[in-house]
UniProtKB/TrEMBL annotation, chains A, B, C, D:
DNA-binding region, residue range(s): 32-51
Native organism taxonomy: Bacteria, Bacillati, Bacillota, Bacilli, Lactobacillales
Stretches assigned to the HTH tetR-type domain: 9-69
Protein name, entry field: TetR/AcrR family transcriptional regulator
PROSITE patterns recorded: HTH_TETR_2
Keywords: DNA-binding
PANTHER family cross-referenced by the UniProt entry: HTH-TYPE TRANSCRIPTIONAL REPRESSOR SCO4008, TRANSCRIPTIONAL REPRESSOR
Keyword rRNA processing appears in the UniProt entry: no
DNA sequence: AATGAATGAGCTTTCATTCAT
DNA sequence: CATGAATGAAAGCTCATTCAT
């Protein structure tokens, strides 16, 4: 009944899952196609049949991880927030959720940027494009909320977005390291203190740290 | 009187310089010991005699790059600053200077963090330690200046330092990308606009972006 | 009445045709069973079902090509010739005709001899036998005509046959190269100059090149 | 004392000898670089260091075999012959000598022509050129002797050269097969009957097989 | 009977490491 | 001490062959 398809989606998924995990854990070069095949419980040959070569497999893993987030992503998290702080907190909480849910995908995307230099130029462009698109999406989602703010003279929405970008980016890395060091954490609630800490800091960035 | 060292310091230095440059440019795996030996104008055998294996060589290059900055570093840049903004600007200007002066060392240290995962656990710890030490140094240098500030209730020096850390870190990456894209830039003056932009942003972080 | 054969003759024929063509064009190793199956519009599995393995397929292709000529061959071409020259010309013209009609089969047989060494000893013997049989047939066909000649003292029919064999063999290769280089040639008439040239040469061999 | 050279001529020679022998015996594809390395008593890696890749190794083997004959070749064999028959016999005797002395080189060159189709186009051109050069040399050597002959009307030197070419070529193959089947033959004298047979045939070609 | 997805042995090639000189 | 020729384990990839469907 289950006709064998030219590409078995279950197998392809297993390969991608294995690729995502191993590339994320070990990086591009130290990960061997053999390993991925073994972890996916398929033969080496099949990996090459489905993905042509190691580089394409890496790119496919990256795309799959990205797609994963793109399909899962809940824009309302950004859109239904009362103010900037609430939005960032929602977004961060959401990102942590994703990180808990899809840790390998998350890690792969986080490290992909630096592995670029090890890929052929053509693939680098592809990775680059993906990251730009992601960044654009985030900006697009945040823009309407920031637009409502009353900025001090000399301050602009763009400035604030850039600064917030640096902070959240740094914070996401912090959280990632934290989660890597505490594998027992499985629920978003356990991360609430960190989230609140970020909230406080962002609030202070909005209103200023310094008296007077 | 001085015991003749079995190691030729000039050759060792050349090896490290070559290693720093090539590891920085290409990453760990794609850099071959052959290349390093050739660029250092020594034999491959000598590289292994001095550094045991490729991994140790990488670690030595990292340490050397770090040392380079540690020796060169001018603490007065941090200490002789009137206020926080001035200090950060001075520090950033100084970092850009270093980046222009020692681009390979700078890039190596910037990418080292992500190459960690490709090293054996023992080496990872070493790299980790180096980064922590660096971070601690920066904090130590900044602490006295931040201590003078009058913080709003709920805000702490540690909070501000952390936030500033994220921002400067993000900004350093931005500058690095900028410099990589504009190799014609050789003087710190040409980077002044970016530095001023960072200053503005940090000022706004101190006092707040939002009206009221 | 006629037992239903488990083998579909049409499919088998397609496989053999494809095998003949591809083996002739590319040689044994560079030709993949995949290609043959695809060109024959059957599945790879069927190829193995019908021919056991690649080597047997090659042998079958060879046999089929040989059979092709054996069935088609018109003995009257040899038998109804007035004299030796006429016979050789008739035979050569006939061979060119076959070459134009069945180029793949022709090329396969021409190259088979040298591909022998790449086959297991048992198959080599088979190929060898086929070539000997072919040679014997040619001799057999020529013998009655040569028997009528009046040989000089010291000359024998066998000598002449052998010499003619070398010449026609060399000439067939020449023609094959010529046809490969001129794919626009499709009619025997276009080859007439070469045939006449061969005739002249054979005539000279019979009567001698040298004055006196 | 024996300084290790960047290319050890003894090793290189061993590799080439092994390559020549194995490529000659087995053909291009069925010969594995592993085998050649083993037979040459060097590591696989060294073969690639010296010859870049398998194809280059094949070409090097071919060139070496060709060179072997070119350096060894004794033109006087052709030049100091009283008449055509004597020349051909001398040349053939000489070729058999070479074949006995360098059987692998001889076989490699004999089979190279047909292995062409298995090589990349660029290498095909190289092989082609080598064969043309060889053919040209033979023609050049024979021309002066043939020029002295008195040809019958309708016969030309070129015709005779071509015919002789076919015959000697066919005969060389015959001899090669004979030697392959009789490995106990090591001296040229043992081949004398075949040589005399060829002489007889060529004489008959000159003067004609047929009475009147 | 027919398919073609799946397998894995085996190939070429690379490069960290060794060691004779 | 210094060299770089030599090594061979291990990588990516191919393709004849198998076998579940």
């Amino acid at each position: 009944m289950t006709k064998r398809l030219p590409e078995d989606p279950a197998k392809k998924a297993r390969m991608l899952t294995a690729a995502i995990q191993l590339f994320a854990e070990q990086g591009y070069e130290p990960t061997h196609v053999d390993q991925i095949a073994q972890q996916a419980a398929v033969s080496k040959g099949l990996v090459f049949k489905y993905f042509t070569n190691k580089e394409q497999l890496y790119l496919a893993a990256l795309t799959a991880a990205n797609q994963q987030f793109m399909t899962v992503i809940d824009r309302t998290v950004w859109q239904n927030s009362a103010d900037l702080s609430a939005m960032i907190i929602n977004a961060t909480r959401y990102k942590i959720q994703l990180q808990l849910q899809f840790p390998a995908e998350f890690n792969l995307l986080m490290t992909a940027f630096v592995h670029q230099q090890q890929l052929p130029a053509s693939s680098q462009a592809y990775v680059q494009k993906m990251f730009v698109a992601n960044h654009d999406l985030t900006s697009e989602l945040m823009t309407p909320v920031v637009a409502l703010l009353q900025f001090k003279p000399g301050a602009t929405a763009a400035d604030l977005l850039e600064v917030i970008g640096y902070i959240t980016n740094g914070y996401i890395h912090k959280i990632q390291r934290y989660l890597a060091a505490h594998p027992e954490i499985t629920k978003i609630e356990q991360m609430e203190p960190l989230i609140q800490d970020l909230a406080t800091k962002l609030k202070l960035v909005e209103s200023g740290f310094i008296q007077g």
